[in-house]
Amino acid sequence: MNAAAGSIRERDINPATRKANTETVLTPRFYTTDFDALERIDLALVRDEWNQMMSEFDNDANVDHFERPDWFSSEVKELPGPLQAEFLDFMVSSVTSEYSGCVLYADIAERVNNPEIKKLMQYMTRDEARHAGFINRSLKDYGIPVDLGYLKRNKKTTYFKPKFIYYATYLSEKIGYARYITIFRNFERHPERRFHPIFRWFEQWCNDEFRHGEAFALIMRANPHLLRGHNRLWIRFFLLAVFATMYVRDHSRPEMHKAMGLDPTDYDYEVFEVTSQISKQVFPFTLDIHNPVFRARFEKLRLLALESDAARQAGGVIGALRKASCLLRSAGVLASLYMMPVVRNELPEKVRMAPAW
Ligand SMILES: [Fe+2]
Ligand SMILES: [Fe+2]
Known about the structure:
With 357 residues, the chain is mostly helical.
């Protein structure tokens, strides 16, 4: 990095940007991949469904959706301390993951020549830029917009093989849909609990995420080897990693869930259920989320994360040892979850689904 680009130093950035730039197991990352491999994606097997999806992208139903009306600010208020802290943490995490998609899709759009993949990535970059920008406007109301340019220049980038990008991004798009729609439906039933106007935007917003997921579903179904043989072990791994991360992270925001009137465990299992139903369009199995053993092991992971956090705060040699022990035990619990039988399903002939939740 040259001196000019590095002129904003770590200590000069605001706390939201610092948080977004921090790498932990639970925070959203930035990704890069092997762009050459994306050149060779063949879509022949899903041609009709692909064309239909691309014309939806082209129609751009949400072109006006992310404009902020004048009344928006009048609904923004100072929230009770702990709720505000958790809400802003949620917003920083959300803007980071929206922007992570934006940066990855823009990179692919710029680097590939395959016209269909290029076009798709341009559409998705457009959507994610709107999403990130919209959240950041709200963070600005609280005086802590994330410096997205700083993130782009400084945040560590993780390399994933293309197939890992498909599994992980497919899941994060579909989980994004399931999370946004579950929150939106909750506030539809209880408008008095809606403590910030941004939640009003989630219904149309989540349709974008749903469609982004459809794109990766079609790419995978057009290349069936990605869903067979040892790749099934990778799919199992990503399902588990994404669900477990979400479970632990959501339980670290009790005040926000209390304000929404949602129990974090119930909310998470609702999101897992919706995601599992959707993922049957592409993955040959789902995790056995209704099994009490599965649920007990997820609880164990959550308690270990709490214990690890306490050890980190205590610090010193004892703290470090306790933290290492938590990490080892968490790996053990994850391994036992990974070995659990999955629930098999037949892939439907028609891949695409409607966002009907
Ligand atoms: Fe998005
Ligand atoms: Fe998305």
